[in-house]
């Protein structure tokens, strides 16, 4: 039995554990107790009716939604309408039972001031299901659970493909995908689930095109997949389009010549920029900017200031960022024991070092991997500094959490990959002889602890 577990393919391990624990997270987490689920269900419902952009009511942007949806969210969301007062609620089965049978009544509507300007793609699958379900006057709470299921299934499919496709670090991808935070978010109504799945997949595709020994030439089908994934990532969350720079890892020998490779790369960048600019143009008039943005931007764009701000942020919030990367759940009020967080990170590094196969990543390719990581870090931190800067706080980056780094985390751990390292020689991890069982057991243990903490938080005895 143990030998069979050691030899099982990682993508199958992921699918089994991800499906079982994903459904458990989905059902046990109370309604609207994952970050911004209220915001995201409004967006998905609006899109289900074919409304991509906010509607106008006088000088305000917003949406018209059924009163029943607003009432349901008000009962379960920890934030009062308007999003100011935070008041976490315990699970109440009587309320859930009542709202599971409360019809939608889509004709009884109110106007809701609403500022979600995300592109529609992350909500498309949820909106499609809501569009059909709403025809049957399905209760809003049932719509929420349907959206969670759709998000979970889509994430499982994309991540399964990523683990199957990548020629290296399959178990690293698996561990990152099955972190408590990743699974919690992916079993909620959050566009981050699609962001993680797509970004993992595009990284895996580039690794496959670069290092798979059976891939001798890049054909039109490969290029079509790369272009499609790049556009999709841009339309989900633009900051993650830096992963397209991994195109530079692909050896020139897999193209007709050097000119063809770089022509394709330039066209890829152009398509990405045009996609982003088109959406920004369409959203003109809906996005509000702060009057202090220019001054704030000038400050953080000074390299010396930026490094100081980044260092102070890490010094102040370093443990918090690690915690929200591995597992601070709920509305960031359910925290895994720090020892589990540190063990998870340590095991990820160990697995990264121990993954030793025939593939060699040279220094130039590692620099190519490092480049999108650095650009992403700079862009993300600048964005949050500008968006949430408040002179009342220390001059640090506010609003930043570790879960935003999950989609690009495979790139960070690729930097530890070394075909010639001693750890890899001793453990011979690529044959699945040592760490597989430990990884599986530790992941299951971490997820069980997470479920216990959720139950303890929301289901007091």
UniProtKB/TrEMBL annotation:
The organism of origin for this protein: Methanobacterium formicicum
InterPro entries named in the record: DUF2142_membrane (IPR018674)
Alphabetic keyword roster: Membrane, Transmembrane, Transmembrane helix
Name this polypeptide is given: DUF2142 domain-containing protein
TM regions (residue ranges): 12-32, 121-138, 145-163, 194-211, 223-250, 262-282, 339-355, 367-388, 400-417, 437-455
Pfam (any one): DUF2142
């Amino acid at each position: 039995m143990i030998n069979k577990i050691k030899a099982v393919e990682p993508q199958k391990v992921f699918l089994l554990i991800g499906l079982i624990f994903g459904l458990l997270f989905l059902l046990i987490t109370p309604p609207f107790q994952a970050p911004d689920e209220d915001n995201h269900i409004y967006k998905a419902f609006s899109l289900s009716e074919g409304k991509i952009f906010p509607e106008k009511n006088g000088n305000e942007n917003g949406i018209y939604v059924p009163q029943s949806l607003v009432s349901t969210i008000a009962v379960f969301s920890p934030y009062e309408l308007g999003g100011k007062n935070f008041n976490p609620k315990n699970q109440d089965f009587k309320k859930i039972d009542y709202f599971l049978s409360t019809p939608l009544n889509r004709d009884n509507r109110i106007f809701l001031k609403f500022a979600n300007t995300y592109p529609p793609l992350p909500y498309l699958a949820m909106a499609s299901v809501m569009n059909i379900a709403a025809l049957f006057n399905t209760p809003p709470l049932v719509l929420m659970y349907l959206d969670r299921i759709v998000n979970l299934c889509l994430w499982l499919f994309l991540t399964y493909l990523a683990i199957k496709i990548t020629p290296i670090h399959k178990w690293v991808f698996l561990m990152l995908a099955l972190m408590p935070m990743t699974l919690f978010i992916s079993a909620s109504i959050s566009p981050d689930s699609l962001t993680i799945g797509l970004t993992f997949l595009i990284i895996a595709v580039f690794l496959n095109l670069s290092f798979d020994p059976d891939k001798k030439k890049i054909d039109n089908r490969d290029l079509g997949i790369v272009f499609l994934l790049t556009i999709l990532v841009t339309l989900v969350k633009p900051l993650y389009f830096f992963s397209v720079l991994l195109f530079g890892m692909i050896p020139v020998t897999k193209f007709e010549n050097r000119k063809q490779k770089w022509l394709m790369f330039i066209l890829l960048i152009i398509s990405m920029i045009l996609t982003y600019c088109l959406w920004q143009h369409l959203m003109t008039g809906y996005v509000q900017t702060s009057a202090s943005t220019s001054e704030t931007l000038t400050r953080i764009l000074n390299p010396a200031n930026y490094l100081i701000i980044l260092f102070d942020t890490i010094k102040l919030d370093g443990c918090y960022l690690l915690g929200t990367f591995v597992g601070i759940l709920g509305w960031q009020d359910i925290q895994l024991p720090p020892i589990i967080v540190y063990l998870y990170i340590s095991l990820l590094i160990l697995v990264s070092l121990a993954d030793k196969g025939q593939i060699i990543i040279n220094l130039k390719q590692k620099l190519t991997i490092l480049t999108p990581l650095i650009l992403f870090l700079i862009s993300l931190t600048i964005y949050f500094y500008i968006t949430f800067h408040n002179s009342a706080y220390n001059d640090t980056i506010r609003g930043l959490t570790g879960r935003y780094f999950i989609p690009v985390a495979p790139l960070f751990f690729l930097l530890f990959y070394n075909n010639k390292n001693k750890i890899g020689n001793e453990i011979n991890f690529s044959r699945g002889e040592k760490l597989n069982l430990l990884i599986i057991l530790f992941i299951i243990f971490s997820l069980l602890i997470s479920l216990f903490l959720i139950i303890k938080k929301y289901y007091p005895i």
